[in-house]
Amino acid sequence: MTRPFPKTPEFSGSLYRPARFEGSVFDLEVEGRVPEDIHGTFFQVAPDPQFPPMRGNDIFFNGDGAVHAFRFANGAVDFQRRYVMTDRLKAQRAERESLFGLYRNGYTNDPRADGVHMGTANTNVVQHNGRLLALKEDSPPYALDPVTLETHGLFDFDGQLTSPTFTAHPKFDPETGAMLCFGYEAKGEATPDIVYYEIDSQGRKQREIWLRGPYAAMIHDFAVTRNYIIFPLMPLTPDLDRIRKGGNHFEWQPGLEQVFGVLPRDGDGTDVRWFTAPNGFQGHTLNAFDDGRGRIFVDMPVTDGNIFYFFPQSDGHVPPPETLSSRMMRWTFDMNNPGNALSMAPITDFACEFPKCDPRYSGHEYRHGFVIGMDMTRPFDAERLGAPPFQFFNLLSHVDVATRRVKSWFADAQTCFQEPVFVPRSANAPEGEGWVIALANRLVDQTTDLVILDAQHMDEGPVAVVHLPVRLRMSLHGSWVPAAA
Ligand SMILES: [Fe+2]
Q1: Which of 55, 154, 314, 334 could form a disulfide with 341 if both were Cys (CB 3.0 to 4.6 A apart)?
Q2: What are the tens digits of pLDDT across the range 177-224?
Q3: How much distance in Å is there from the Cα of 136 to the middle of ligand 1?
Q4: Contact 37, 481 (CB under 8 A)
């Protein structure tokens, strides 16, 4: 019998109380009209702990991965949700309790978890070569059946994966369908080794490049352009001694700069160049491209301090969230200049995250980005909701990175959004013409809706609101898979 979950912010409220269920709903209730040209599946994964944490509390990123599939056809939407049957979840279900301690720290596990793979498969879900891959950056992917969501198990690309880790943020070459991906801590826990892979659309590894960072650090997302690979090393570092003593895997380092490793895609890793910028927190990549003449542009949200309050610095300090400033930034690297030729300029003047571009333009010059944003000058129902929860985003926005023009939809004082996906109106539609789909959490009603907006007219609000009869917990990332795939 499962004990109650803790009453901490990590496990309570409409956004973070575990949802825990598996199931399906045929033909969801639609207000408005779902465009009939939306034909395919919106996959998404949420960390959703099956059992209360063994240590009394836990961080959001440590929950068991639960995959959502919203299947669109002919104006209708069907919904399905299943847990990824990880080795870890199976072991815990057998004991009907949590056996795993601190995030990415096997030294804090229950002895009954000895030898059980720790991957949670809770961060992103993508389809490649007919497999649905549930990803977590400290683990190989878990392979799932894209139709049934049945888990096949840990997947090492038929023996081609040479690292124990694999990013949750692979990129896809829109011309070839190749998956461009990497692992960090790639020769074991707290190692500074990084590996880059290119795996073609048929699942064959075409390139593998190894390099060593200046030190071990979290590399959560990265960027690939036509000619370059860019690794952002965040000032969050692992330490094997600390981990062995039962401490956090990551610690924020206020004295470290932001570091970027840039290497040519046709190089061998010895040709990596390291660039630095003042201490800050690199977020997710919106998109990146190079001009073919040695200038590289990487667009990502950047915050001037540690957002991850659960990975404090060594003295325990974490900055109060309201003291942090965050904007979408464009980093420009000049590979023709032998110095630290890195500059940064803001694209937005508001905090935003979970960015998505039109996937047909990934790695190429582009204009259109889609984000969830935070604007606390808008009304907020503090009377009924108290303080805004972690990852509270009350805007769904279109950012034109060429003109810096932003069009946002603010729903109301009780609603926040999860990561959007962009769906082109057709395979040949101009960039950014299509639909933005995202989950909206109605925090007072404790319900969740799927909203669909015209990507070029986001300020006009949704063309359809699809009601779920259940509440979904906050998720992390997902992707759109066209029916043709
Ligand atoms: Fe992420």
Answers
A1: 334
A2: 999 999 999 999 999 999 999 999 999 999 999 999 999 999 999 999
A3: 9
A4: no
Q: CA-based angle 257:261:265, to the nearest 5?
A: 165
Q: How many A from CA of 169 to the centre of ligand 1?
A: 7
Q: Which residues of 123-152 are buried (b: 16+ CB within 10 A; e: fewer)?
A: bbbbbbeebbbbbbbbbbbbbbebeebebe
Q: How far is the CA of 74 from the centre of ligand 1 (A)?
A: 31
| Ligand 1 center–CA 284 separation, angstroms | 6
Of 482, 479, 453, nearest in space to 465 by CA = 453
- Expressed in angstroms and rounded, the spacing between residue 276 Cα and the centre of ligand 1 is 22
CB 443 within 8 A of CB 15: yes
Output the CA angle 426-427-432, nearest 5 degrees.
70
Classify residue 325 as exposed, middle or buried by CB count within 10 Å of its CB (0-12, 13-18, 19+). exposed
- Residue 362 C-beta-side C-alpha neighbours within 13 Å: 22
pTM: 0.97
pLDDT in tens, 403-442: 999 999 999 999 999 999 999 999 999 999 999 999 999 9
Residue 220 C-alpha to ligand 1 middle, in angstroms? Answer: 6
For ligand 1, the distance from its centroid to the CA atom of residue 283, given in whole angstroms, is 8
Q: How far is the CA of 168 from the centre of ligand 1 (A)?
A: 7
Cα(175) to centroid(ligand 1), Å: 24
